[in-house]
Amino acid sequence: MFKILFSKLKESLISVLPIAVLVLIVSFTPLVDLTTAETVAFAVCAVLLILGIGLFNLGADLAMTPMGNHVGEGLTKSKKVMVLVVVCFFMGLLITVAEPDLTVLANQVKDIMPGEGDVGKWLLIITVGLGVGLFLVLAILKIIFHKSLAPILMFFYMLLFAVCAILIESGKGGLFPLSFDSGGVTTGPITVPFIMALGFGISTTVGGRNANENSFGLIALCSVGPIIAVMLLSMTTTGSLNSYDTGIYAIENYIGSNLGMLILHKIKDVLLALGLIVLFFLVLQVTVLKLPKKKLMQIGVGIVYTFVGLVIFLVAVEVGFMPTGFKIGQQLAEFSPVLLVVFGFVIGMVVVLAEPAIHVLNKQVEEVTGGGVKKIEMMLALSVAVGVSICLSLIRTIFGFSLLYYLIPGYLISLGLSFFVPKMYTGIAFDSGGVASGPLTSSFVLPLVIGACCAINGSGSVYSLAYGVVAMVAMTPLITIQLLGFKAVVSAKVRMNIKMRRILSADDEQIIYFD
Asked: Cα–chain-centroid distance for residue 112?
């Protein structure tokens, strides 16, 4: 076990080190002036982040992924579709409630939600959970009845933009970027391992020629439901969109006794979220699954690792990464918007390395495609895509235009490509979009863009011009991964044409005829 833990810590060190070094280098230049407290807090939290990601990844391997596999296989073998649907709905809801990046986002916008404060936070989280639960059911039914992903995505994205138009028409248009961000942060380090394992377990049990292909696409659909759900919720918001409380990014909030209160609060949130998942899984164990004690012990140990890793992770990003991201964005925007855009591109390329769910996805993609899509290819494509998305988001913040100028053509291109590439690549691409926008995107990149927006346009434009960066991070991989698929198709056809030309141009004298 310690050998595996050491391996996970080594992976997380490689993931977090680039962004930590980059931020620390910038902090010692005239471009950014961080206080000693901020620099020390960031450095310490970077070390804690390495520990948190390592423990969480080990916990995901021991608990979340096996739980998803066993639930998918066990319920599918029972051939009770209604039971499978109900269980998947509640598991989708509970897994989402436990998602750390959703909690990070909800804490930043809770005051404009109905009820405000903690009531507003939990209302947003539960709304997103309901969206995930409903669309997870839809994704499971897609696998069972062997339906194609592309037409389903086409229909629901058309519905999504129709609801977006209604939201804008109702006078709440400033909140549609937040709605798209909600879909992006939904699929993070807890949701991805469970949902992907659930899909893989169901698709392999159902079987068929396209079992591997059908195992992808669940993350894609589970990202659409929350967007629509939050748009509907946004029509009832009561808070003002013309001001934004930037005090949540002050390092003073996390020093002294406040730090102890924050840790206790995170322990309570994670304990509640994981407790609901464990309780529901135990009910399934007693009624349906009946797994051996050895397997249950492994899952139990994994839950403990997941709990400790998540608490450390959430405390580290909130204390060290959110205040640092906000201040760097604010000061770079004041110094030079051009340097801000360049920094955004570079930080986007390295921040995706620190997303725990990315490594889970890349590993499963390489296994399912039989090495056809290498982990290094996926990682490179996602890094470039995320870098471009943050770069474009900062350009939008500087010039002050609508997010729809990016989203509409972006989704048209990505949905259009789905008709020209193998279906597996479409599923992988749309899953990658949800996975790329994980906890560090909402806890470092989003505050970075918010800080830049406050410096350039004032706090009154944050909801309309800063939010939406998570949606951009979720969208650009859809295009880049499908372009990888398109390249693979073209390369295969070129190789086939070369072989055919060689066969047709072969010398007839070399052919031996038998009488």
From this structure: 24
Amino acid in the structure at residue 319: V
Say how far apart CA 409 and CA 432 lie, in whole Å: 19
CA atoms of 487 and 484, how far apart (whole Å): 5
Coil, helix or strand for 209?
coil
The one-letter amino acid at 382: L
**Which residue, 465, 454, 459, 461, is CA-closest to 334?**
454
Contact 436, 385 (CB under 8 A): yes
Contact yes or no for 107/155 (Cβ under 8 A): no
Q: Are 94 and 195 in contact (CB under 8 A)?
A: no
Residue range 453-482, pLDDT digits in tens: 999 998 888 888 999 998 898 888 888 888
Supply the pLDDT for residue 43.
92
Contacting residues for 315 by C-beta, under 8 A, at least 6 apart: 45, 48, 262, 263, 266
Name the phi and psi angles at 21, rounded to 5: -65, -45
Task: Name which of 72-81, 274-283, 288-297 the model is least confident about.
Answer: 72-81
Buried b (16+ CB within 10 A) or exposed e, 268-283: ebbeebbebbbebbee
Per-residue confidence at 83, pLDDT binned at 50, 70, 90?
A: confident
- Per-residue model confidence (pLDDT) at position 283: 86
Rounded CA separation 186/225 (Å) = 10
7-62, pLDDT tens digit by residue? 888 878 877 888 889 998 998 888 898 888 889 999 999 999 889 988 988 888 88
User: Is 240 within 8 Å of 150 (Cβ atoms)?
Assistant: no
Asked if 46 contacts 25 with a C-beta cutoff of 8 angstroms, the reply is: no
Closest CA to 322 of 256, 253, 264: 253
Q: Count of CB atoms within 10 A of residue 491's CB?
A: 10
Read off the pTM.
Answer: 0.82
Per the rule left: phi > 0, alpha: psi between -120 and 50, beta: everything else, 151 is alpha
